[in-house]
Every structure is written in C-alpha cells, then in structure tokens.
Write a structure and sequence with these properties.
4-stranded mixed sheet, elongated, Jelly Rolls, 17 strands, mainly beta, 2 domains, 2 helices
Length: 326
C-alpha cells in the first residue's frame, strides 16, 4: 500500500502582534557634516547650515531658479539606494521648508520619484522609474518645516496603486525597479505637468528611509494543512497562507518516505489564488512539503520532530531564507 505524508513549514503564531519587528530608519540629520546619499538641490550654492533646521543642521539653498525644485540623491550605493526588495524598504520621508518664492506656488502636491539609471550613471536621458503623488502640498513661505512620508511597497510583484511608471520605461517593471534603485527624488508638483520658472529659497532636513528586514521574508506555512486523495495517482493539498509579508507564491516539494532529504519541486508556481494544489504522484511512498516563496528567496521547509530546520532541496525553487517572521 502506498503511503503519503505531508510536512509543513511551521510558523509560531502566538501573540504575533507583540513580536518585535526589525524595522530600522536611517536618517541623514547633517549634524556631523556628512551627507548620506549625496543629497542636492541641483544648484551651485547650497550649503549645510548649523542652525534653523528641524532641528539643528540642514541643507540650505538661498537661490534656486527652476520650474520645480527636485531635491534628490546622487550616490546610488548609499543607504537610500540599492535593492529595496532585499532590504525590506517600507517607507521614505523628508522634512522641507520654503523660506521664500517670488510668487505663489500654492496648490502643488509633493511627489516621490524613484529612478534606475539604466546602467549609464550621469546620463539622465535613458533613466526610468516610478513616481507617486502625495496627499500633502509642498510647504509655502510662513508654514515652517513640514514632514512628508511615503509608503514604498518594495515587496509588491506588480505596480502598486497610485504609482506611475515614468521615463525610458520600455519593458521595465516595478519589481525590477525594486531590485535596483539608483536615485530618490522629490518633485514639487505633479511630474506630468508644466510649471513656470521661479526663484526659490529652500531647506531640507532629515531625509530618511525605513527598512523592515522581516518584510521580505516568506516565513513558514502554519500547521493547519490537509491532504485528500482524489485518485490512486492524484492528491490534493490544502494549506493556510504564511503570515509573512514576503510570501508571494508557494512551492510544492515531493520526497520519498524514509529519505527526508530527497524532496524536489513538483511546482514552483502556485499563485496563491486558493492555497491548494493538485499533485499527480509518482510511483512509491511519498511525503510533501509546502514552502512559501518570496520574490527573491524561499522560506522555511519547516521543523522536524527534533525541532531542527528541514534541509532545503538540492533543486530548490529559490535560495533559502528560513528566518520566520512574527
């Protein structure tokens, strides 16, 4: 008689809301004389001022003649660039002030733009990326410092709602952008609109990026899973989704009972629509593993009876990252 067994990646779910997160926020305060990210207004006369910021030091420009100020990074390898997906980037923010503008600039929203330089740094003509228009307008004279923060869904496999692809997009995608961000830029207004040139006196402080190292983790499948035999050569697996934000897919592995290192993929493309899969079984006695998959890595294969992590497949769907999210 053929034997079938099911093993799952087990995720501890007790009091998940109390589990500590691994989120960290990198903030450039300009207090030490540095400039993480190489932030610039794009003008020749900017400087770091020791007082008047939010609080303390800040990046000041007394005169900028432009249709739309665009404070931005210039160092792709800084904390503000790189692989957002792997870093678990969840948000980007900045503090801004307008000391003076030669006539009204009211009604303009602040937009966040993320760019890839297409492998040609210094040549903006082929840059591509995405932008989102924020709900809050740019600061006006007399309003003082205003703070802006934008969620960045770095784990999303598709373009998130509200985001618009821009530049030399071609076949490039949001998912691709999230693996290689070269520039962070803020745009004073809707990037699709045309504005007249004005003279601005401006300041920026506390540009920041928040990363959750657990956001990209696929995690483990909870323990409530069922298997039904449909025919002598076919079974159906049912499971509950991983609670981890990085799980975007599931892999099904089959192995030979008695050799618990023999599992190989049956499929790496279960698309999470219903958390179930029909499996045509090969001759012999088998066990099955359901493993959450992230965009870059796969999660845990679960724990064995001794509480140790089961080994990954020698033909794994993706590189393993077995740390469980809360």
């Amino acid at each position: 008689m053929r034997k079938l067994a099911v093993f799952l990646g087990i995720c501890l779910l007790a009091a998940p809301s109390l589990a500590p997160r691994a989120a960290t926020t990198v903030v450039e305060t300009f207090e030490t004389g540095g400039n993480e990210g190489g932030w610039t207004w794009g003008g020749p006369n900017q400087s770091v001022q020791a007082t008047g910021g939010n609080p303390g030091h800040y990046l000041y420009i007394p005169f900028l003649d432009t249709f739309a100020p665009q404070p931005r990074t210039t160092i792709p390898t800084s904390e503000f660039g790189g692989n957002y997906e792997a870093q678990g980037v969840v948000s980007i923010g900045i503090d801004l002030v307008t000391f003076d503008v030669d006539f009204s600039a009211g009604g303009r929203p602040l937009s966040l733009m993320l760019f890839n330089n297409n492998g040609t740094p210094g040549n903006g003509s082929d840059d591509w990326g995405a932008y989102i228009i924020g709900p809050t307008n740019i600061p006006l004279p007399g309003q003082g410092w205003l703070s802006y923060d934008f969620p960045v869904p770095s784990q999303s496999p598709a373009l998130p709602p509200g985001w618009v692809m821009t530049g030399n997009v071609g076949s490039h995608t949001w998912s691709e952008l999230m693996t290689d961000v070269d520039e962070v830029r803020y745009f004073y207004g809707d990037p699709e609109l045309v504005f007249i040139f004005q003279a601005w006196e401006l300041g920026l402080d506390n540009p920041r990026i928040t990363k959750d190292t657990l956001a990209s983790e696929p995690g483990r499948v909870p323990t409530d899973m069922l298997m039904t035999r449909l025919t002598s050569t076919q079974v159906k697996l049912f499971w509950s989704p991983s609670p981890c934000a990085g799980a975007v897919n599931y892999g099904i592995y089959e192995g030979d009972l008695g050799d618990f290192t023999s599992h190989v993929p049956v499929t790496c493309t279960d698309l999470m629509a219903d958390f179930e899969e029909r499996i045509v079984t090969a001759p012999g006695n088998h066990y099955y593993l359901v493993v959450p998959l992230g965009s870059v890595v796969e999660g845990s294969y679960g724990l064995d009876s001794a509480g140790a992590e089961r080994p990954p497949s020698t033909a794994a769907c993706k590189p393993i990252q077995s740390t469980a999210c809360p």
